[in-house]
Design brief:
alpha/beta, Spore Coat Polysaccharide Biosynthesis Protein SpsA, Chain A, two-stranded antiparallel sheet, 13 helices, 39% helix, elongated, disordered N terminus
Length: 376
């Protein structure tokens, strides 16, 4: 017999499903801060809230106080004056000194403006030469070097490359810490090639200093910084100026002789006009062009002064021949003294330089000679 399902007019299928869901829903979980018997938070919960609020308040007050103190106190900024692997140790030293005395506001310019940068190229084994120069015309300590920089408008630094020899590094580091008068450049001293080191100096000096001229010098010359500053400060019509003691001469193609030139066949029998290597100066526009050039785009000859001179031929530069940069003895107009015939290699450089230092014409004469001497 068939069975029939009778539905109530007041209770349909949807109501049945909702009732089942309500019956299956779990009871609400009690709050950790309320008990079933009390609708108010217990004393323990209130104590926890008070402690947390107090801690937050203390942390906030401490943060505000620290920020206020940091704003009032000038920051101690120590700047290492680098460009790649190049570094000016004197300005790094001065930056550290100012930070240590709480005077960083005095500042050390990132790229100071000077009349000229004089890079005295030297090597790891040439400490005796550097000592000889410091005993004569090159200042011995950072303060004296800074005073000379300000008095002449010239920045003087010993220029040296890089080495992987830890012993050489350690020995030189002691000298750096004593004198702080070095410029490190991106050149490999272990695989010594003077043309590459010279270019590295010009590039580093250009990036570290805003100068009118950049001067390359050897570490065996006697120099009058005041007279060099006067020479570089002269007004010139030509922005591209190459200053030096100009020369020509036969190209040495015999590899057994000094000054051998392996690319002599590209030059011919005689060298073009170029400056002697012991000291010469390039104006800022020339060095800016060299600084932007890739080394592999420039031809490198064996001899550094020939290399620089060949690049000058490719540029519209003015060759300024200045014999005062290559005097063999001190005169009233000499700027640099070198190639002394009485002191050929090998010789005691310190003895030679001290002899020059003791000559009043070298060390104590006026910066410029009297006008009547010039007329003569």
């Amino acid at each position: 017999m068939p069975q029939y399902h009778h539905s109530s007019p007041y209770f349909d299928d949807d109501d049945d499903e909702e009732l089942i869901k309500k019956r299956r829903k779990p009871p609400p979980r009690p709050s950790p801060f309320l008990t079933p018997s009390s609708p108010h938070p217990p004393r323990r919960a209130l104590l926890i809230l008070v402690i947390l609020s107090a801690v937050c308040l203390i942390v906030g007050i401490a943060g505000i106080a620290f920020a206020a103190a940091a704003i009032r106190r000038p920051p101690r900024i120590v700047t290492v004056f680098r460009c790649g692997r190049a570094e000016d140790t004197l300005r790094t030293f001065r930056s550290k000194s100012l930070a240590a005395t709480g005077r960083p506001e005095e500042g050390v310019a990132a790229r100071p403006k000077v009349i000229g940068v004089v890079g005295v190229l030297t090597g790891f084994s040439s400490s005796d030469r550097r000592a000889a120069l410091r005993d004569t015309w090159f200042p011995r300590d950072p303060d004296a070097l800074s005073r000379l920089d300000h008095a002449t408008g010239l920045a003087f630094r010993f220029v040296i490359g890089q080495t992987k020899d830890p012993k050489k590094k350690a020995v030189l580091q002691k000298e750096v810490e004593t004198h702080n008068d070095f410029m490190f450049v991106d050149a490999d001293e272990d695989n010594y090639k003077l043309p590459y080191k010279t270019v590295a100096f010009f590039k580093a000096a250009f990036n570290l200093f805003d100068a009118d001229f950049y001067v390359k010098a050897d570490d065996d010359i006697y120099l009058r910084p005041d007279r060099l500053a006067t020479l570089l400060a002269k007004d010139r019509a030509h922005r591209l100026t190459y200053i030096g003691c100009m020369k020509k001469g036969p190209v040495i193609t015999d590899r057994n002789m000094k000054w051998f030139e392996s690319s002599g066949h590209l030059i011919g029998n005689e060298y073009f006009l170029h400056a002697h290597g012991p000291i010469y100066a390039l104006s800022a526009d020339i060095v800016a062009a060299l600084a932007s050039a890739r080394n592999d785009s420039l031809r490198m000859f064996n001899n550094e002064d020939v290399t620089i001179g060949s690049w000058m031929l490719a540029m519209n530069v003015n060759h300024e021949d200045t014999k005062a940069l290559c005097e063999p003895i001190c005169t009233s107009t000499s700027i640099a003294v070198w190639s002394n015939p009485r002191c050929l290699d090998p010789c005691d450089l310190k003895e030679k330089l001290m002899e020059l230092q003791n000559v009043s014409m070298c060390s104590n004469s006026s910066t410029l000679p009297p006008e009547d001497d010039e007329d003569d």
